[in-house]
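Reference record
================
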Amino acid sequence: MAKDVEVTERGSFSGKDYHDPPPAPLIDAEELTKWSFYRALIAEFIATLLFLYITVLTVIGYKHQSDLKAGGDLCGGVGILGIAWAFGGMIFILVYCTAGISGGHINPAVTFGLFLARKVSLIRAIMYMVAQCLGAICGVGLVKAFQKSYFNKYGGGANSLADGYNKGTGLGAEIIGTFVLVYTVFSATDPKRNARDSHVPVLAPLPIGFAVFMVHLATIPVTGTGINPARSLGAAVIYNQDKPWDDHWIFWVGPFIGAAIAAFYHQFILRAGAVKALGSFRSNPNV
């Protein structure tokens, strides 16, 4: 047993009971000719639309129910805990529903991280991001269409930096929050983990949804929690006020940096991608 482990660590992976999928091509023009590709785009668009519709309605509903000037109760509504559950729960539901069709990204930062890890091609990554952003804009647009007065009064669910925090703090919150999410995505979908823990059924959308839930608990008071550029863009476009646009760069730069760090950490540190590429850190494997 020890010998087998040693051989595996040295780079002879013949004894693996799992198979890593081959890296996706950088540019795969053939995808554009397949219906499955466009079906995946539709799935990403609809999933992001539904995600924004439910979550932004939850945010606005809570603000209205807790608005003392409107006769609300300070302890009314779902509270921050309920908002976090709405975001995490919707991600769990939508990833579960779409994972077999598009991979269930529903987030440009997740798509970016998977692209860096060569899980998706450049064409698919770009088109996914476009579909996600359009879906987010349409989802928030539906919220405004149904509840225009509340939407405008309570900020449209738009992300912005909370009073008392500087831009560096907000950027750091978005980087770390997105790192947690994308790291969880990689870990939950890792074929090595699935093989090793095959006796323990792991439903990948569950830890991903919980990651979103936990990050929202931590960062709602700071930035309202972006960790998803499409979510932030959709609300900013429909609400269209100065404050969300002034801080908007944070909700793109932060998530993309966090996703890149998570991709590097998982692929090159935890999965030893650099070691596999070089063969070994040791100059002589017999030493």
